[in-house]
UniProtKB/TrEMBL annotation:
<protein>
    <submittedName>
        <fullName>Cation diffusion facilitator family transporter</fullName>
    </submittedName>
</protein>
<keyword id="KW-0813">Transport</keyword>
<feature type="domain" description="Cation efflux protein transmembrane">
    <location>
        <begin position="10"/>
        <end position="202"/>
    </location>
</feature>
<dbReference type="Pfam" id="PF01545">
    <property type="entry name" value="Cation_efflux"/>
</dbReference>
<feature type="transmembrane region" description="Helical">
    <location>
        <begin position="12"/>
        <end position="35"/>
    </location>
</feature>
<comment type="similarity">
    <text>Belongs to the cation diffusion facilitator (CDF) transporter (TC 2.A.4) family.</text>
</comment>
<dbReference type="InterPro" id="IPR027469">
    <property type="entry name" value="Cation_efflux_TMD_sf"/>
</dbReference>
<dbReference type="InterPro" id="IPR027470">
    <property type="entry name" value="Cation_efflux_CTD"/>
</dbReference>
<dbReference type="Pfam" id="PF16916">
    <property type="entry name" value="ZT_dimer"/>
</dbReference>
<feature type="transmembrane region" description="Helical">
    <location>
        <begin position="106"/>
        <end position="126"/>
    </location>
</feature>
<dbReference type="InterPro" id="IPR036837">
    <property type="entry name" value="Cation_efflux_CTD_sf"/>
</dbReference>
<keyword id="KW-1133">Transmembrane helix</keyword>
<dbReference type="InterPro" id="IPR050291">
    <property type="entry name" value="CDF_Transporter"/>
</dbReference>
<dbReference type="InterPro" id="IPR002524">
    <property type="entry name" value="Cation_efflux"/>
</dbReference>
<feature type="domain" description="Cation efflux protein cytoplasmic">
    <location>
        <begin position="207"/>
        <end position="284"/>
    </location>
</feature>
<dbReference type="InterPro" id="IPR058533">
    <property type="entry name" value="Cation_efflux_TM"/>
</dbReference>
<keyword id="KW-0812">Transmembrane</keyword>
Amino acid sequence: MNRKTKFARLSILSNSVLIILKLIVGITTGSVSIISESIHSTMDLTAAIIAFFSVRISDKPADEMHPYGHGKIENVSGVIEGLLIFVASIWIIIEAIKKIIYPEEIVSIGLGFIVMFISSGVNFLVSKKLYKVAKEEDSIALEADALHLKADVYTSLGVGVGLLLMLITKLSFLDPVVAILVAIFILKEAVELLKVAFAPLMDVKISDEEIEIINGIISKYKSVYCDFHDLRTRRAGPNKYIDLHLVFPEDMAIKSAHDICDEIEEGIEQSLKNTNVMIHIESCTHYCRNSGCKKFEILTKEWLK
């Protein structure tokens, strides 16, 4: 079992325990904010299960039906998780409004307060570890899962503080108000997650910082090539695909040009994780005739010395 799958399983186990705990206390106390938190954790569990299977599938090697691999399953997973969070938050708001209109007495507030802070602590530890692994493995599915749990840290704290205020002030309407605030926070989380997860499905480019790294590596060899152009990049889950055209002097040996391309590819793949690079070689004479460039004459003379 690889690291991504291992930590996705950890998220499933922690969410399962917290759901049971929150649901029991929520029903016992009659607190809509605690019940809303149990629903939020249920969405987290669903997301964790989706992430678990998506990281397993995304790690499968390319095959005849999927020549570019299975990486985009992680983005599909992230979109589904975002939609689940969105639906859950709307449901929480509806239930909280009902509680404002038809208030009910809340009992055992102290117990609910304790459970919320335990939940917040557990999710903080798990989300911190998940986020670290997600960054190291460049996994959008694990990052989405970590984002779920990170939101749960804040929402659990919010509910806990709300229960504490009710315990002090005896104002029961604070419970559904806190639940609505939690739901609004979750809605924001859903929108952010959908943006991150959906973009690679449209083959958007990799980040500007990563493109700057690529340009820096290629420019190290500018003394031996005429130009490079048509740099294109895209993401598919944890994988990054890069292709570009590199223009060499006409008289340069194919092997020499190929060796330089190999060095550039190796440099990029070492600097950026999970990267596939494709370089198309062009003749400087052909390229410069169409672009008006005169540099190839100088480079050819220098190369032949």
